[in-house]
Amino acid sequence: MKLIEYADRDMLCIDLANKLAGELTAALMHDERVTLIVPGGTTPGPVFDALCAADLEWSRVDVILSDERWVPEDAPASNARLLRERLLADRAEAARFHPFYVPDTTPEAALPALEEALAPLMPAAVALLGMGADMHTASLFPRGDNLRLALDPKAPLLVEMRAPGVEHTRVTLSARALADSLSLHMVINGADKREALERAMDLPPEEAPVASVLDEASVHWAE
Ligand SMILES: O=C1O[C@H](COP(=O)(O)O)[C@@H](O)[C@H](O)[C@H]1O
Questions:
Q1: How confident is the model at residue 103, as a pLDDT?
Q2: CATH top class, domain 2-222
Q3: Do residues 50 and 17 make contact, with C-beta atoms less than 8 angstroms apart?
Q4: Is the dihedral of CA 70, 75, 80, 82 positive or negative?
Q5: Percentage of residues in the chain with pLDDT exceeding 70?
């Protein structure tokens, strides 16, 4: 793991957005289309605000979420909603977004078709992940009902997940789908997450699921 510390959150957002844009541009020199994985939650919004203005061929970029809450896109908890508002704007409006949530069905029923649609988009050229203070990343939650499957090296790309105290059923990319990304970044803010990150480094992924992707990750942190 590589830890990059910033003087403040604004600097983190600008620098990280530039890095992601540079990596996407480089990947587009080799491949006709490239995939970008992005997180939901409260942290990445300001990174998206900077990234969406990047001057690159967004029409050749496929965007997928690291995980989604099984709620309609107009629900405040929807990660797709965050993306549409903060990332798929400005120049990045031209990107192709592949949402996970399918109205009027269950994750269980939707997963086979989602998995089939996702397979040609993987591995991602660039992945940005978040992390919770409970050491989850994507929706790989400690004590998640499908955590064992999601951590398996032979896991499907997408796994349904429920966990104690976690609102909404989730669908999440599995650890191997995330870790296979050609470049993997993580964005975290605050002392509590820094402390959680340090704890996770000494724990197995079954207790600290974020540990399953840390070897490959550049972690961007600001107070
Ligand atoms: O539930 C989620 O949490 C993590 C971390 O979110 P944050 O609000 O603490 O930044 C996020 O990375 C994930 O995509 C999201 O669904």
A1: 97
A2: alpha beta
A3: yes
A4: negative
A5: 100
CA 28-180-44 angle, 5° bins:
70
Ligand 1 centroid distance, CA of 67 (Å): 9
Residues 140-196 pLDDT 10s: 999 999 999 999 999 999 999 999 999 999 999 999 999 999 999 999 999 999 999
Report the relative pairing of strands 170-173 and 158-161 from DSSP bridges: antiparallel
Give the per-residue pLDDT at 222: 98
C-alpha 51 – ligand 1 centre gap (Å): 18
- Of ligand 1's listed atoms, the one at least distance from the Cα of 39 is 14
Q: Which residues line ligand 1 (CB under 6 A)?
A: 39-43, 66-67, 79, 130-132, 138-139
**For ligand 1, atom 1, which residue shows the shortest CA distance?**
41
User: 30 CA distance to ligand 1 centroid (A)?
Assistant: 31
The neighbouring-strand residues paired with 186 are 129, 219
